[in-house]
Design brief:
Pdz3 Domain; six-stranded antiparallel beta sheet; 16% helix; elongated
Length: 218
């Protein structure tokens, strides 16, 4: 939509490109693999969209939404243009006695370096009690592990003199629950937030501590 930050899809893997000889060695039972190159899921990040959908290391990714792949850049392009929060269909090959599987993956968000690299004139969600959250990978500066995808949302803004600031909430904090409900996307966070009337809310940090967020002043 006009004015919103562009959100590219994120799978949560480290892909690699294999030639036909490597693929036939890894999948000796697959005799019909004749393309020059294929894409492998070399590493799958913990808690990532890929892992949640069932993708495993060494899986061969044949296509995304029916689009055949021959290089890891093909995978990045197809996943990126699908967009954050959208579902894609992966056709994969798995195992020494290879079997072809279809996985449905709900994508996360490709990270950008920092706010200065973003062009936007409005936000997807309004401030709620003085805070704004996004996908856990929304900004590279918040990423705490190369090999793990936080099962949480990240706080990207805390307004001055707001209930969030008064409660001690900081930008960059990872929130895994709101009133006991797990949240891993901004959509799920704001959905739970809308259920709350003018009463205190309990937020659970990813690393364990709880924070009580007071209601906004009327």
């Amino acid at each position: 939509a006009a004015g919103l930050e562009a959100e590219y899809g994120f799978l949560g893997i480290e892909p690699g490109t294999l030639d036909r000889g490597q693929v036939r060695s890894n999948f000796p039972g697959a005799t019909d693999l004749d393309a020059p190159f294929y894409v492998e899921a070399t590493r799958v990040k913990q808690h990532s969209p890929a892992q949640l959908a069932g993708l495993q290391p060494r899986d061969l990714i044949l296509s995304v939404n029916g689009q055949q792949l021959s290089h890891d850049l093909d995978l990045m392009r197809e996943v990126g243009k699908a967009g954050a929060g959208n579902e894609i269909k992966l056709q994969i090959l798995r195992g020494k006695k290879p079997r072809e599987l279809t996985l449905n993956v709900k994508l996360g968000k490709w990270p950008v370096a920092d706010d200065e690299g973003i062009v936007q004139t409005r936000y997807r969600h309004p401030l709620w009690r003085g805070l704004r959250v996004d996908y856990p990978t929304a900004r590279r500066k918040y990423t705490f592990s190369r090999f793990s995808y936080p099962p949480a949302v990240v706080v990207t803004h805390v307004a001055p003199d707001s209930p969030a600031q008064q409660a001690g909430l900081k930008e960059g904090a990872f929130i895994s629950q709101i009133n006991g409900q797990a949240v891993q996307t901004p959509g799920s966070f704001y959905q739970e937030a809308q259920k709350v009337n003018n009463s205190p809310v309990t937020l659970l940090y990813l690393d364990g501590p709880k924070l009580i967020l007071p209601p906004s002043k009327q």
